[in-house]
Amino acid sequence: MPHAPLDPPFDRRNFLKLMAASLALAGVGACSRRVPEEILPYVYAPPPLTPAQPLYFATAANLCGSAMGLLVQSNMGRPTKIEGNPSHPASLGATDIFAQAAVLEVWDPDRSQAVMRDGQASTWDAFLATLSGIDGKGSGLRILTEAVTSPTLIEQMRALLRRYPAARWHQYQPINPDQAYVGSVLAFGEALETACRFDRSRVVLSLDADFIGHGVRHARDFAAARRGVDGEPDPGRLYVVEATPTLTGAMADHRLAVRPSEVEAVARGIARALGLPVAESHAAALSAQWIAACADDLRQNGRRSLVVAGAAQPPFVHALAHAINHALGGVGSTVSYHAPLFPDATRQTDSLRELAAEMAAGAVETLVILGGNPVYNAPADSGFAEHLAKVAASVHLSLYQDETSARCRWHIPAAHFLESWSDTRAFDGTVSLQQPLMAPLYDGKSAHQLLAALLGENTASDYGVVRDYWRKRHPSLSPNPLPQAGEGDEVSLREVRANADFDAFWNGALRTGVIDGTRLPGRKAVLKTGFLVTPPRTGGEGIELVFAPDPTIWDGRFANNAWLQELPKPLTKLTWDNAALIGPVLAARLGLDNGDVVELGYRGVRLAAPVWIMPGHADGAATITLGYGRRRAGSVGNGAGFNAYLLRRSDEPWGGGGLEIRKTGGRHPLAVTQHHHVMEGRRPVRAITLTRFRLDPAAAVTVPLSPNPLPQAGEGDEVSLREVHANASLYSAAKSEGHAWAMSIDLGACTGCSACTIACQAENNIPVVGKTEVARGREMHWIRVDRYYQGDPDHPRTHFQPVPCMHCEHAPCEVVCPVEATLHDSDGLNLQVYNRCVGTRFCSNNCPYKVRRFNFLQYADTETESLKAQRNPEVTVRMRGVMEKCTYCIQRIAGARIEAEKSGRGIQDGDVVTACQAACPTGAIVFGDLNDPDSRVARAKRSPLNYALLAELNTRPRTTYLAKVGNPNPKLGFEF
Amino acid sequence: MAQIFQPQSVLLLKIGAGAVVLGVVALVLIWRESIAQRPPVDAPVEQVPPFSHKHHVGDVGLDCRFCHASVETSAFAGIPPTSTCMTCHSQLFTDQAMLSPLAASLRENRPLRWKRVHRLPDFVYFNHGIHVAKGVGCSTCHGPVERMPLMWRVQSLEMKWCLACHRAPENFVRPRERVFDMGWRPPQDQAAQGKKLLGAYRIDAKRLADCSNCHR
Fold first, then answer.
1. Which residues pair with A803 in a beta bridge?
2. Domain that holds residue B105
3. Which of A85, A603, A862, A899 gives A69 a disulfide partner, CB atoms 3.0 to 4.6 angstroms apart?
């Protein structure tokens, strides 16, 4: 049938006329008058609030395992920046990248905003109405949570299990300490938590344990032990045995790259050398010299040595580490034991497998999943996703409508930790109250509320539940605190007093961020030596596959966090992707180059992935990081990378032998931020061994800068050459009065963790640019962490160097700016004045450190409402066409100056703390006033290790570095 | 085929076309300039309710800080919450129609909506607290508010105007105790008095004109 003609018929001329007219009208409409600004005061002002002055609240968050104490900045009610809580044992004032990035997560526009039923919007009340269907004993009721540390939540779960005796509680998260617990059962007969004191250790042996890369406290303790007293470096020694290069391996004095299955052989070798009766493994023969030297060192340091085993190592290695620590006498000195942090979750993978089996058998009628994302991250062989369809009523509480939400009947939006009350334990058991900064943005519910609803308390608030829990446990409110109390009015008086006591306790806990006396008590652990006869491990044939948590998005929970996606992975400098990491030898053998797509075949499953050649990776092994390949993460995380969980099996959760790698011929573009990895003799990073440092403290900084720094210079008289450099200038030196801000970065303490980069991003409203722009070299980070390799690519030394703007006294950028948009102020800061900048980019071209960042496009999102609320009101949001760079956190300097001047005193050392300095876990960054000779920065700069990057250019940077001091074992010696 | 246009007429046409383009651009610029204007200096800004500084400051004699409570401690001087207004207006003039928005605000727990009179661009970071602490009086920037039934701007708030003081603060600073005094006028020897005050306030005039003081 012919189509009817369009009516009225449009000819081309009429169409153009109409289009022209509508375009013109649209243009006129767009030029409307600016809406006048309004000011809305409060009706009743909340008492502690001074307009435009930020407030700080102590809270704590369990981001990936155990709690970290935080101080959250609230700007007129909006959480905008997170710092560490100095009173909290896991933080001591510093933070990691996950804590820093949490403010972006809470304001993420992709967060779930509504209760869903079968994919349709529903309501909380409708959900509550369906809860009545659970039968009396709860035989079909199963609860699945992540590993829970919250005492209140544990108590609620126990109450639920008392109410429904046939119900079961399962706990699972993909990165779990199962093997360590089983190891402690082997060694001591019970599951125990190991507490390591790196600050008391002289010699540390890490058996595949990345204790520096995960968590802040251990890195802080480790750096403290190496720093020595009065700036005189006194490093102990770190030995690392591992397959995949980690931040711990990069800090090692001696790193041994072995396949994961051979770590046990090395551990056995060391145990034998220390006199433990274990069987020898032939694989250790290759590294006999290394093992002997390490074992000697451990023995000599006795009580001050420490052996730690990594989460991916089998239980036997954990048990052996315990036995070695016992043999060395480290128990009570460098190691102690306490009750497990997750008392009901010492076998998480088994627990999930049992649940999946029950689901498959149709025994589960109601499954309540509190947090987590098991459909995505359960081991592939558990069949969790497939069996979930057999559960009649499934409920998922989560921040995002993710893979698991999509497969559940009900989805309940969760309240973020900045929006809800809870309590949570740190690694040593210390409990902190989790205090919200604001009411839930999208009416999210907390796990406490959902559990209370299951217990029939539909109107319970998380505040009420948590407060009640602590109220019941407060000593002054316990049943008979004053047995002698007699009559009725006495009791009520006592109650009043007790209530006042409890309020004081509660407010004190909220103010300091920790509850005193909640550390888990130490346990005496008696070593059972029976396990030592276990025969050596077999297996690990062919190429071994290693699973590892992703350095920036962990197990995938942070996949929709754009800051973390764009943060270069500390070692590979990859962004927005994961890759199969292989060593240079294996790459050469298989003919692979960076970005080549390979097909990974592991136990019958095939998966395509790009490869990345990783210097220092053990030969015969490949590492893939978990957390990528999300399909329902949100607009940021969807489709990035490949999903390593598809290969993961519950019997070998951390990988095993028999991996096949087949080249497909395909290519996958990878966005990296560093393309050259060796120093080419320019020595931007200086390092020296302790022996050499003691002979000549200035040796690290006086060695030739480059093979031929100034070819015409004479007989290698380096010192006078340096003097000539230092004094060469056409201009007389500018007089510096008042303050002279400067920074010192200790490369011996820097672990490369990149917390500074994210802290800076949060503080300074730095936009993300996306993978394609990163691939064009347009990332915007104001402080980048350069990573250099030195020596043999199979066994390189790794160096990190954070590079912010150097604030040169002779700044090359300033002389080329045609509009004076970059210039000095009287404190010697190199300023960037955004409203003057016209975007010529001359300054960036003339900057030898390449620290200037240009807004090639409109990177800052000025449209999304919730993201506006995240921004720091003290820092300009930059527009397209403007150059920007590190300002030394000028807003913090201005704030400190204003407060100091108002109170009539000068700025004291320590008043100005830059965002990077505050976040740094190891205290590597020091900032302050160079004109104050007693300031920490002035003292750091008097160190013989102090040197300037590219000093030969005579830019006189205010940011300088302290050379790294290594402490190699003379028996295995090396020189930098 | 003969050319349709002579070279001269082509030139004329080009000039004409150029002139049209330039004219349109100029018109658009002028027009944008005219609509982008903030309310001009000296133009009173209508408010609901029509709050009068003349009445509250001039007639009643309230101190600035009674309402603008954070002017000494914060960057923002503060706009009083409705509850502050109600300190008096729960008793006084409660039956006035003019004040009905105030009562409504309290009753419905909805904030009053004031129109901003003094607005600085987003890239300027002004701090009231430090100016008050260093002897810059309210009337220096805000004018004789005790005579303003409705507020208006008396100064341009352009950078040139800011710099006039930042480059020569001795012409403007006054003793600390006269900062909130609406009746203060510069004395005959302001330059000399001002110099002394700069010493007392420890104002380093050299660094006041640094870009970083206001832009970051």
1. A784
2. 80-113
3. A85
What's the gap in Å between the CA of A821 and the closest CA on chain B?
A: 9
pLDDT more than 90, % of chain B: 71
Any bridge partners for residue A411, and if so which?
A116, A396
ω into A8 cis (within 30 of 0): yes
Contacts A–B by Cβ distance under 8 A: 125
- Return residues 274-293 of A near B (CB < 8 Å): none
B42 found inside a domain: no
Residues of A in contact with B109 (CB under 8 A): 43
- Produce one character per residue of B14-26: b if its CB has 16 or more CB atoms within 10 Å, e if not: eeeeeeeeeeeee
Average pLDDT over residues B94-101: 89
- Answer for the pair A929, A739: CB distance below 8 angstroms, yes or no: yes
The answer on pLDDT for B82 being more than 50 is: yes
Residue B48 lies in a domain: no
Please say whether the beta carbons of A909 and A664 come within 8 A.
Answer: no
* Interchain CB contact of A482 with B (< 8 Å): no
Same domain, A830 and A958: yes
Is pLDDT of A312 > 70?
A: yes
Query: In the predicted model, what is the mean pLDDT of residues A665-679?
Result: 93
8 Å CB contact of A874 and B125: yes
pLDDT band at B30 (very low <50, low <70, confident <90, very high): confident
Average pLDDT score over chain A:
88
Q: What is the dihedral of CA A769, A773, A779, A785, to 10 degrees?
A: 120
Record: contact B202-A901, CB cut-off 8 A: yes
Q: What is the CB neighbour count within 10 angstroms for residue B72? A: 19
Q: What is the ipTM of this complex?
A: 0.86
Whether A121 and A98 map to the same domain: the answer is no
Q: Which of B131, B211, B214, B215 to mutate to test the interface with A (most CBs of A within 10 A)?
A: B211
**What token pair was written down for A816?**
């080329």
User: What does the pLDDT read at residue A788?
Assistant: 95
Range of the domain at A247: 190-332
Answer whether residue B41 shows pLDDT above 70: yes
Question: How many domains does the structure of chain B reveal?
Answer: 3
Please name the residue of chain B whose CA is at the shortest distance from the CA of residue A47.
B81
Residues B103, B74 share a domain: no
Minimum-distance CB partner of A833 among B113, B116, B211? B211
Q: How far is B28 from chain A (nearest CA, A)?
A: 10
pLDDT of residue A486: 43
Closest residue to B83, CB basis, from A44, A50, A834: A44
Q: In angstroms, what separates the C-alpha of A26 from chain B's closest C-alpha?
A: 15
For residues A238-275, one letter each, b for 16 or more C-beta atoms within 10 angstroms of the residue's C-beta and e for the rest, the string is bbbbbbbbbbbbbbbbbbbbbbbbbbbbbbbbbbbbbe
A149 shares a domain with A88 = no
- pLDDT higher at B208 or A33: B208
Written in H, E and C, the secondary structure of chain B is CCCCCCHHHHHHHHHHHHHHHHHHHHHHHHHHHHHHCCCCCCCCCCCCCCCCHHHHHHHCCCCHHHHCCCCCCCCCCCCCCHHHHHHHHCCCCCCCHHHHHHHHHHHHCCCCCEECCCCCCCCCCCCHHHHHHCCCCHHHHHCCHHHCCCCCCCCCCCHHHHHHHHHCHHHCCCCHHHCCCCCCCCCCCHHHHHHHHHHHHCCCHHHCCCHHHCCC
Residue A664 falls inside a structural domain? yes
Question: What's the pTM?
Answer: 0.90
Residue A246, domain CATH: 3.40.228.10
Residues of A in contact with B206 (CB under 8 A): 826
Q: Are residues A933 and A842 in the same domain?
A: yes
Q: Which strand (E) or helix (H) includes residue A13?
A: helix A12-30
| pLDDT tens for each residue of A358-388 | 999 999 999 999 999 999 999 999 999 999 9
User: In angstroms, what separates the C-alpha of A974 from chain B's closest C-alpha?
Assistant: 47
